[in-house]
Design a protein that fits this description.
alpha+beta, globular
Length: 186
Amino acid sequence: MLSLFEPHTQVIRKGKAHKPNEFGRLVRIDEVENGIVSGYEILQGNAADANSWLPAIEHHKACFGEAPRMATADRGFFSAENEREAEALGVEKVALPARGRLSKKRAKRQKERWFKRALRWRAGSERTISHLKNPFSMKRATYKGDPGFKRYVGWSVITKNLFSIARWLEHKKNKKKRGVQNVEGG
């Protein structure tokens, strides 16, 4: 037990030299277009990222009725099996960067335009994680106990999604206004 007050707290080993151990819980975040979090899972222990890949694809398929056209994640999720399984589930383009030295075939694939574009989109999803941690306070849960922690994460995701939807609607409204002004002025 790491905490008398929060017994659900776990040690997270990320292997970073400046911060080898962190305390809390790992949460997998699934994101679709416009910064919408389509799913999340609170993981047990120090789970490997690679084990979370297929459940995320299956969850997307269950929610939307089909696999995503493109799916991407960071190097921690890479395995040849994860790529094959995602393609078997119907994902057209799987962009999982491999670790270590790359074969010529693998290097060529990772230099393709669609692959680079997917990795840029994935890098943008780091913004979603940052938003969840900071403005939406997922960095430190104030609800107590494991059920409280799970509820807190859920409320953080709901709040983030409402914010993303409002931002998207505002962007759509402004884009429509600019289009009308161009027609009237031209």
